[in-house]
Write a structure and sequence with these properties.
- By secondary structure, this protein is of the alpha+beta class.
- The protein folds into three domains: about 1-55 and about 130-265, Trna Endonuclease, Chain: A, domain 1 (3-Layer(aba) Sandwich); about 75-125, no CATH class; about 270-345, no CATH class.
- It has helices at about 1-20, 50-55, 65-75, 85, 95-105, 145-160, 175-180, 205-210, 250-265, 320, 330-345; strands at about 30-35, 40-50, 80, 110-115, 120-125, 130-140, 165-170, 190, 215-220, 230-235, 245, 280-285, 290-295.
- A six-stranded mixed beta sheet has the order 1-2-6-7-8-9, with helices on both faces. A three-stranded antiparallel beta sheet has the order 3-5-4. A two-stranded antiparallel ribbon has the order 10-11.
- A hairpin with a 2-residue loop joins strand 4 and strand 5.
């Protein structure tokens, strides 16, 4: 059920943010959801970061650096230099690089000046190598043996590629046996006791469904550590024979860096960006270390897909609500978005307001 999977996914993210134990005890864990590549998207991503380097990353702001900005920022020199002398050949027209330079300068993550007809650039700070490990988690709360076999095929591809340092599956305790039996031995399995449904008629039971799920988590199977610095194998087509291609370590490092940047900018609370918090029925419920959406009109948690302007229960906030505060700060929907953003920023040391 899509709704159950969405709520389960948010709770796994909340659990990971509070209780994930990094391989290096001093690492700082960042949690994000629905990230990956064009070929593969994972439900939950845990980025284990060097704490000092992560604080240095904050010099470039709270928003993610897209691939074009990242290439410019990483290679920007310490002193004013003609941009073509400072940056590696991109392999495509330089005019696109100039566009990225202008965007980086407008965001304040790079300094730019013009000397004659030449554009010169200078970094605001060295871009740090802040990522230590990346852990990928697939969330499948309800699985039978047949569905577990289908998932196992995808996890075998993840293991062969070795883009992440570890690959896990998170499921409910009653589906764990099917997963352990069918999963590749290199993939770990996290088992969660099923919480009560938020549609339960008993209010006490519904409240238990939204409390901290962390006490119910257990490791049913430990994963094997993968090697992102080794050449990976990407399966391009199953068949007889199976078609595949090798992926160089340098390409994997670049992909990991881009995934980590998206994780830094988005986190896991960005679900409100694709939902309608400006609906008067939209609310939040506490799920341990993070809030999950709750629809007062439906009396349950809603999915991102059904929370839209086309929802039959959608009731926009009246204009009077949206004009509260000075200057106009908006109504309850804007307050929800600010709350989620503050909680995201608290996990990113060095940003203004990280002690909020």
């Amino acid at each position: 059920m899509a709704g159950a999977e969405f709520g389960f996914e948010l709770r796994v993210c909340a659990w990971a943010e509070r209780y994930w134990e990094p391989a290096d005890a001093d690492s700082h864990a960042l949690v994000a959801r629905q990230l990956g590549t064009q070929r593969r998207r994972w439900d939950t991503i845990v980025v284990e970061a060097d704490p000092d380097a992560l604080r240095a990353r904050a010099a470039f702001g709270a928003d993610e650096l897209d691939p074009d900005l990242l290439d410019v920022v990483r290679h920007a020199p310490a002193s004013w230099t003609f941009y073509r002398d400072a940056l590696p050949d991109p392999g495509y027209p330089w005019r696109y690089v100039r566009e990225a330079i202008h965007r980086a300068s407008a965001r304040g993550v790079l300094e730019e000046r013009k000397r004659g007809n030449r554009i010169e650039i200078r970094r605001i700070a060295p871009y740090p190598d802040w990522v230590r490990r990346i852990v990928a988690i697939e969330n499948k709360p309800d699985l039978d043996a047949a569905a577990a076999r289908d998932l196992a095929d995808q996890l075998e591809r993840d293991v062969a590629l070795g883009l992440a340092d570890e690959v896990w599956v998170a499921t409910r305790a009653d589906a764990t046996r099917a997963l352990v039996t069918e999963m590749p031995s290199a993939a770990g399995v996290l088992s969660f006791d099923a919480p009560a449904s938020s549609e339960a008629s008993d209010e006490a039971e519904a409240a238990r469904a939204t409390r901290d799920p962390s006490m119910d988590a257990d490791v049913a199977w430990h994963p094997r550590a993968l090697d992102p610095d080794a050449t990976g194998v990407r399966v391009t087509e199953h068949g007889d024979p199976t078609a595949f291609e090798y992926v160089a370590p340098a390409e994997k490092r670049g992909t990991r860096r881009r995934i980590a940047e998206r994780a830094y900018g988005r986190g896991w609370r960005a679900y409100a960006d694709t939902m309608r918090p400006d609906c008067r029925a939209f609310g939040l419920r506490d799920a341990g270390d993070g809030y999950v959406p709750h629809c007062h009109a439906k009396g349950r948690e809603q999915t991102a897909a059904e929370c839209s302007g086309s929802c039959a229960e959608f009731a926009p906030e009246p204009p009077g609500w949206r004009q509260r505060g000075w200057p106009i700060e908006g109504g309850p929907g804007k307050a929800i978005q600010r709350l989620l953003d503050r909680r995201r920023r608290r996990r990113r040391p060095g940003l203004d307001g990280d002690a909020d």
